[in-house]
Amino acid sequence: MKQVYLDYAATTPVKEEVVREMLPYYTEVYGNPSSLYSPGLEAKAGLDEARKRVADLIKADPKEIFFTSCGTEADNWVLEGVADSLKDKGKHIITSRIEHHAILHTCEYLEKHGYEVTYLDVDGDGFVSPEALEKAIRDDTILVSIMMVNNEVGTIEPIRELAAVAKARGVLFHTDAVQALGNIPIDVKDLGVDFLSMSAHKIYGPKGVGALYMRKGLRITNYMHGGAQESKRRAGTENVAGIVGFGKAAELAGQNLESHMADLRELRDYFWEKIRTNITGVQLNGSAEKRHPGNLNVSFDYIEGEAILLMLDAGGISVSTGSACSSKSLVPSHVLDALGVPITKMNGTVRFTIGDFTTKEDIDYVADVLTKVVERLRELSPVTGQEGW
Ligand SMILES: *Cc1c(COP(=O)(O)O)cnc(C)c1O
Question: Does the keyword rRNA-binding apply (predicted)?
Answer without folding.
Answer: no
